[in-house]
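Tutorial handout. Part one gives the primary structure; part two gives the three-dimensional structure as C-alpha cells.
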Amino acid sequence: MGNDFWLALSQILMINIVLSGDNAVVIAMACRNLPPRAQRLGIIWGTVGAVVFRVVLTFVAAWLLQLPYLQLIGGILLFIIAVKLLLGEKEEHVEASDNLISAIKTILFADVIMSLDNVLGIAAVARGNFTLLLIGLGISIPIVVFGSTLIMRLMARFPIIIYIGAGILGYVAGEMIVGDKVAADLVHNYHFLHSTVPLAGAALAIIIGYYFKEKTRKRGYYRRYSSIFPIK
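Part two.
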C-alpha cells in the first residue's frame, strides 16, 4: 500500500469525523418518546436500516462518479458542503415518534438525507477503490452508532477540526472537478492544474466559509444590539 492509499484513508477518516457525528443523534431524537423496550428495538432496527442504506448509497455514488459530468457536478456539490460545514447549517429537525414503526421510518428518512454528504465524500476519495470504500464504511458505521456525542464535543472544544475537515472536502472537490472525464480532456496540457485546483478548492472553501460565518455572526450581533437599542 503506497502513500496515496494512506493519504486517502486519512482523508476518509477526517470526512467521517466531521460529517458523521450527528446521525446517531437523529436516532436518539426519533426514539425518545417510545417506551424503554421499544426504544431499544427502534435504535437497533433504525441503526441496521441506516447502515444498509449507507452501504447502498456509497456504492451507487461510487458508480455514478465514473460517468461523464457527474464527477464535475459531484465536485461542485462537495465544495458547497465544505462551505456549509463552516457555516454550521446542518441542523436536524426530527420529530419524536410515539410508535416503533414511525420511529424507524423517521430514522431511515433522516439518515438517507443526512448521509448524502458523507457518502459523496467517501466515494470521491476512494475513486472506485473497493478496499477504501469498505474501510470508509467500516469507519463511518461505528461513528454513526456510538461516536456522535464525543465527536460533537471535540468539534465544540477544538473548532480547528471543522476547518481541517472543510479544507479536505474542498481539496477533494477540486480533485473531482479536474478528474472528471470531460474536464480532464480540457486540462490535460496544463498538468499544474491537477495540483493547483485541489489546493485552491481547499483554500477557497475555508476562506468563503469563514467569510460568510463571520458575516452571519456580525449580523446576529447587530440584530441583538438593535433590539436592545432600537434605531429610530
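Part three, for discussion. The CA atoms of residues 2 and 58 lie 24 Å apart. The mean pLDDT is 76.
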